[in-house]
Amino acid sequence: MRLVHGRLAAVSVRASFGAGLWVGIMIGSVLGAVAGSLLAWFAGTMLEWQRDLAFTLGVARTLLPLGDQVALLRWMSLNWFLVVPATSIVVAAGTGLVGGLIGALLAASYNRSPRHAAVVVELPEEGEELDDEAAPDEDEELDAG
């Protein structure tokens, strides 16, 4: 193998968008699951708080904070196993899009910059064979000829 010095002329915007998309989806799915768990917990806590206030103060639930939302809060508290994945998917979609756009923006700005990164590439000698991944199959050689 011989080493060749050069510079990285361009970065694929499509590949950078895809990489940013995957990173954003993974981070967003974790953050969304945590947010969904907190949302379901908050709904249950609000229901208990309203129950205690209604009992202590003798006030109708509709007059309490979030009193109109009792049905929604109860549904979220009882169906937490649906709330957590749904929140995770929604947050993952948003952060995936943002991550993809950031990746594409960074690739585009790198491609437009006058300074490029120096790279060192290994090239095979004239007599050496390429790796199995880079070498064409024998069937392809026969079909082409």
Give a written overview of the molecule.
The structure is a single chain. With 145 residues, the protein is mostly helical. The protein has one domain. Helix content is 65%, strand content 8%. It is built from 4 helices and 2 strands, in the order E-H-H-H-E-H. The chain has helices at 13-57, 70-78, 80-112, 138-144; strands at residues 2-7, 118-123. Strands 1-2 form a two-stranded antiparallel sheet. The radius of gyration is 28 Å and the shape is rod-shaped. The protein starts with a strand and ends with a helix. The mean pLDDT is 86.
> How far apart are the termini?
29 Å
**Got a strand count?**
2
Mean pLDDT: 86
Question: What percentage of the residues does DSSP assign to strands (E)?
Answer: 5-15%
Shape: rod-shaped
Please state the CA-atom Rg, rounded to the nearest Å: 28 Å
Low-confidence stretches: none
Major sheet characteristics: 2 strands, antiparallel
